[in-house]
Every structure is written in C-alpha cells, then in structure tokens.
Amino acid sequence: MTIKYHLYSSVGCHLCEQAIEIFSKTSQHKYLKVIDIVDNPLNQDNLVDLYGMHIPVLERLSDNHQLFWPFDIKEITAFIQEN
User: Gene3D superfamilies in the record, alphabetically (predicted)?
Assistant: First the structure.
C-alpha cells in the first residue's frame, strides 16, 4: 500500500481527531498517514514551525498541495479528485 496523503497532527488535538474521522469516510482512507508534528517519523525539525498554528493540515503527496483546516467531507472529496 502506497501512502498518498499526510495529515499533520498532534496528540490531543481534537480538530485533528475530527479531520481523521472525516477522512476515514473517503475511499482513500487506507492511503493516509498521520504525522505528529512534535514527534514526527519524518525527522523534520520544522514541522511545529510550519504547522503548529494550522493543524490539522492534509497534504497530497503527489504534488504537495495542502488543505488547511477547517475542511469537511465535500472539500476533502474535491481535494482527492483534483489529483
């Protein structure tokens, strides 16, 4: 399975939990990887600086296009179909 989307998040972020729940209703849910901006597996030092005030942020990896919160199922579906 190839990861196609990242959701930048943080532990305890209730908006991030909502974003994950919304994305889980799409056909692409299995292609999502949640990235904790504080303890991130990508080992990028600047994720807190980039996304700290904006999480959750959904990123499409094919073109690095990002969708910033707030978003709903319609906006996520359009975001997925743009690719």
Answer: Glutaredoxin (3.40.30.10)
For the stretch 19-58, pLDDT in tens is 999 999 999 999 999 999 998 766 666 898 889 899 999 9
Instruction: Give percent above pLDDT 70 in the chain.
Output: 93
Enter the tokens of residue 42: 């990508």
Q: What is the CATH number of the domain that holds 14?
A: 3.40.30.10
- Give the count of domains, the chain: 1
pTM for the full predicted model: 0.90
Contact 74, 21 (CB under 8 A): no
Kindly state whether residue 30 falls inside one of the protein's structural domains: yes
Angle between helices 73-81 and 14-23 in degrees, nearest 10: 60
